[in-house]
Write a structure and sequence with these properties.
Two copies of one chain form a homodimer. Chain A is α/β, with parallel strands linked by helices and about 475 residues long. The first copy, chain A, has helices at about 10-25, 45-50, 65-70, 135-145, 165-170, 185-195, 215-230, 325-340, 370-375, 430-435, 440-445, 460-475; strands at about 5-10, 30-35, 75, 80-85, 90-95, 100-105, 105-110, 115, 130, 175-180, 200-205, 230-235, 240-245, 250-255, 255-260, 260-265, 270, 300-305, 310, 320, 355, 360-365, 380-390, 400-405, 415-420. Chain A contains twelve helices and 25 strands. In chain A, about 55% of the residues are buried. At the A-B interface, helix 8, strand 21, strand 22 and helix 10 of A face helix 8, strand 21, strand 22 and helix 10 of B.
């Protein structure tokens, strides 16, 4: 009998791996250690919970501890793995002030990532939040509700969770003015959430671009949409510090001091790799754990998956750190199958992402940034077009802006972005599919895509972009 | 100087070809003959015009005669080409009772298709319509409006068109009961149009499947949706004849006689190939004109494109007749470039199509029918799954049903369908892209597609289908 498959971290990657391994090899002991009480929760749902679009915290849990137990997995919550000894194949686990050793046959590091707070000074004040745990989501939700609201009191759970006490947060008056530091995914989504509660909302972004991975064309429209929805957007504005007594009271920038009652930091996340810091494990340039195509780290029998690990990029083949949900789930599942004896590759990442910014739908995939393309050895050329989302005569058509990036020499498609209000986001999937297949711009232009007036013009906006980009490539010949 | 490029037919394929040729070779004489007054109109918009979602007939014209003239194209409307002499490279043109001969250097047959009326007996009665011309669309729109409606009086046009007189049709009381014969695209779309006017609507379909190219899973949901919207659907019911005096009065089936005031025939279209019937031109098995990859017919210097011609299928490589808008436009454009001296392939067809059935969005691509797959030399296997369109906790998620078909031996994806109420239709494009690239089910399953709660669950429904289908393929190994 093999020694147990031990998983550190009970979220997407960890539980996907545990579940798959147990299904494929039912006699194998599978143990999951999770340091908090929460498992398998939807990070991506939190802004919508704060917004009020999702009623109960519990809805964001996709798997309960009891369901995990029913799968035959040993799930130990409030158990923190504090040391890995790859020579002895043993982890040290701490719980309730005690520690013990647990041998493993295979080990998966799925410790995820955490929200950054540095380098913003004053992040330790009260009423300064990051959006990266269930407890914080519950607290922020309570803070944004009026003290007489009843919905957030309902934080008791079925399935083995302790209820979350948000009484203190709920008792406070909601903020009048809030600041969001950072214009990435979380910042944009939280702006929508705060405006739904009618707070005066300031969003600060250090650079001149919102959601930088989506490029300039999307940034521009996201900015317009935020402003149209009452968000004050401060581009090129570094938050120098937060000020206050015990509670935060102001945001300080080169432009001056803005009084605020609550601050949301959305300045990025970083991989949780402390656990293996003392080992000889190899990291990638990103600082996340380096893995091979099966998710194996440089240590024998030690795998890594999810937001703490790198993955290989669809277009460049090079390792990259792109912490997103689908690839975490997929990698976990593949590793579960591999440790059960049937090796399965963890798959690549194209960095495909979609984002809702109020009514705007945004998508991106592959390599969008020219500098990144050059660094990867390509000679990038791109075109941005705007076309209707439906036949012009059909009501509801919305302008849809598409950017496609290709390599000038080979004509190969490298990446793309899309933005618009009518079914724009899911259209990025056809570009992502083309990247996986290595299609050239000419091949993409020849795609037979669906056309009907309610859904698309004769030439889908992505085909229009391909046509214009191919013209550009042909001119260069 | 080359002899003129002559185009027969002033719709999508014809005008795309003429425009492209003129742009690439401005000195070349380009002549387009169109037998009606209408050019470049949106067939696909007609049901929505009858429904009332589009206000004016004119909105469905994408290019006016004056705009065509501005491009330097000689456009002759009310000119019917009645003969082709491929040896002399001359066409015979009839206009206003006179005929004349026009020599050509290159000739494009873009005569389109026409709505079938046979084998339904009684199709010659009044108030029996097919939906395949601007004049009929105008008349049916007038018929469905109350006599005191004013919107349809507005059928005068800018850009060189004679107005359409629908006074007689408008003067009549709208029908109370209508019958649609045929449950294909037009039948489904017209059912939505008629129900918008609150008519009692009967839809007759000979087989047990609605929109057969979309397969059984889509048919089932379309039927439910039609019925939920008040359409009486008669499957497995052949309309034996129509009865009446001068006006149609009843539909006769094996089940009996249904009184009706108006009948819409949507029993398919057939290619207009009479013009070349006397020549040695080759036809495909479909009865449409056979072409090579550049759109060349078997006659020298004679091209064919659009609904009168076949095209090669993306998956099988075999010629097929799939009359749809995008491929007609694309083929015309390619032929225009080819005759201008820079050969361009017309592209393939995957038969990708999207359809709105009330609030239901349907899509299909590639080979869905197992018999067709077997005939093409494949060993088909398919799976149908239903999954949410968004994260379960996010409001607005709709059940989305996906069918994927693959070849058992190679694992290659052959086709797919999708149906659901939330952004389902455009998702067929990611499957169509995979077909063009020849991806296997395993490769498709590895796609990095976009995930965010408002737009998609972690696993896009098409990925769920791929996962299940791959499981099926693996079991067979």
């Amino acid at each position: 009998m093999s020694k147990p498959f031990v998983v550190v971290g009970g979220d997407a990657a960890g539980l996907s791996a545990a579940s798959k391994c147990k299904r494929e090899e039912p006699d194998r002991e599978v143990i999951v250690y999770e340091k908090s009480q929460w498992i398998s929760f939807a990070h991506c749902g939190m802004p919508y919970y704060v917004k009020g679009e999702i009623d109960r915290l519990e809805e964001m849990l996709s798997l309960s501890p009891e369901e995990v137990a029913e799968r035959g997995i040993t799930l130990e919550r409030h158990h923190e793995v504090v040391d890995v000894d790859p020579n002895e194949q043993v982890v040290t686990v701490r719980s309730d002030g005690e520690t013990f050793e647990q041998p493993y046959g295979d080990l998966l590091i799925a410790t995820g990532a955490r929200a950054r707070t540095a380098p913003v000074g004053g992040a330790e004040y009260e009423s300064v939040y990051t959006m990266h745990s269930m407890d914080t989501a519950a607290e922020v939700r309570a803070r944004v509700m009026s003290p007489d609201a009843t919905t957030v009191e309902d934080n008791a759970f079925d399935g083995g969770y302790a209820s979350v006490d948000v009484g203190d947060a709920l008792a406070r008056e909601p903020p009048k003015t809030v600041a969001i530091v950072g214009g990435g995914y979380v910042g944009i989504e939280m702006a929508e959430a705060f405006r739904a509660h009618d707070f005066e909302t300031h969003l600060y972004q250090r650079s001149d671009t919102l959601v930088p991975p989506f490029g300039a064309a999307v940034s521009e429209q996201v900015k317009e949409t935020l402003e149209a929805n009452g968000v004050t957007v401060h581009l090129n504005t570094t938050v120098e510090s937060l000020e206050g007594e015990s509670d935060v009271e102001a945001v300080v920038t080169a432009d001056g001091r803005q009084s605020v009652d609550l601050v949301l930091l959305g300045i990025g996340i970083e991989p949780n790799t402390e656990l293996v810091a003392e080992t000889a494990i190899e990291y990638g340039e990103s600082g996340a754990i380096a893995i091979d195509e099966y998710g194996r780290s440089s240590l024998p029998k030690v795998y890594a998956a999810g937001d703490c690990a790198e993955k290989h990029h669809t277009v460049t083949g090079e390792p990259e750190w792109v912490p997103l949900g689908l690839t975490a789930n997929r990698a976990g599942r593949a590793i579960g199958q591999t440790v059960a004896g049937e090796p399965e590759k963890v798959g690549k990442i194209a960095g495909t992402a979609v984002l809702k910014a109020f009514e705007l739908e945004c998508g991106r995939t592959g390599i969008v940034d020219h500098e990144k393309a050059i660094a990867a050895g390509f000679d990038p050329v791109s075109e941005t077009i705007t076309a209707g989302s439906r036949s012009g005569y059909y009501p509801g058509a919305a302008e849809t802006t598409v950017t496609l990036v290709a390599d000038r020499q080979s004509g190969r498609l490298l990446g793309g972005t899309i933005v618009g209000e009518d079914r724009a986001a899911v259209r990025i999937n056809q570009v992502a599919t083309a990247l996986e297949a290595g299609l050239t711009v000419s091949e993409f232009e020849q795609l037979d895509l669906g056309y009907a007036p309610p859904f698309s013009p004769v030439w889908d906006p992505t085909l229009v972009a391909a046509k214009v980009l191919r013209g550009q490539l042909a001119t260069d010949e």
